[in-house]
Amino acid sequence: VQLVESGGGSVQAGGSLRLSCAASGRILPGNVLSWYRQAPGKEREFVASIAWSSGHTEYGLSVQGRFTISKNNDKNMMFLEMNSLKPEDTATYYCGRRLVYVTDYADWGPGTQVTVSS
Question: Could you read off the pLDDT of 11-34 as tens digits, one per residue?
Fold first, then answer.
């Protein structure tokens, strides 16, 4: 499955953005789709994940209460609604796919840049 992110851009602190992740094929039950981000010189950081079947969500501590992950099973798409953006949210955002009981990700998108200015 190929994943492609979109929706990145530049925004001022306090603003909002909505990222999308489109899959080239059908996402089967038993998969988890996630958002990670990586800022220059930093390690890749977990942002949020959603289980494709149950819809169970998890969030990284730094984004809890500000970001919301969602999905559209019919369109094989995942979204990340980002509110109250901070300059420290500046990063390249990636979507990834893994099986529920596997820790390694099978697929990654090329990423989309989010820049938050103060």
Answer: 999 999 999 999 999 999 999 999
Closest CA to 53 of 33, 68, 35: 33
Helix (H) or strand (E) holding 52, with range, is none
Q: Which residues contact 108 (CB under 8 A, 6 or more apart)?
A: 3, 94, 95, 96
Give pLDDT tens digits for 94-107.
999 999 999 999 99
Q: Cβ(33)–Cβ(25) under 8 Å?
A: no
Q: Report the alpha-carbon angle 67-8-21, nearest 5.
A: 70
* Cα–Cα nearest to 26, from 49, 1, 60: 1
Cβ atoms of 85 and 65 within 8 Å: the answer is no
